[in-house]
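EI: anyone free to look at a 180-residue chain?
SC: sure, send it
EI:
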Amino acid sequence: MTIEKLEELMLYISHKSHDDETFSSTKLNKLLFIADFYAYGIWEKSITGTKYVRRQFGPVPSEVLIAQDKLIANGKAKIEERSYFERTQKRLVPLANPDLTLFSTEEIHLIHAVMDECKPLNATQLSDWTHKLRPWLDSADGEELPYYTIFVLREVPVSYDDITWAQSKLKELTGMDYAS
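SC: here you go
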């Protein structure tokens, strides 16, 4: 089911991005990453269930090429090359409608929110952003980026008030005093 959901989400995002001149395979990878990791952060479960690995230009679904090849072989999509600011842009172009019955209403809403938020950004801007995230910074090429790293995307200083609040919540939940 994982590869099937990945394929259908790739089709859906590509379909919804048909009028986005900045849309490319790279931007598709970033949108998949953001949607899956945000879903995990909210529901403790990603949308596609696919693993993500660190690549030169940021996080990539480990099965993205398999899913892409399958979509092309089944006549559901094709790869189109376009010129974008003197660079060749490859994009997945859907030839069939995605099967949205695989997704919950909440998942579709999250996907739309991610796409709306990222629409003004091109692939380079999204890649630059992912290169500043802890999961990407703390891994080597080809290594898996665990979903739980959504909770430490950025290195943010923790204040004394934050620690005090956390200790009080732990005491409230467990009955144990963690203050030292």
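EI: Strands lie at 52-55, 58-61, 77-84, 87-94.
SC: 👍
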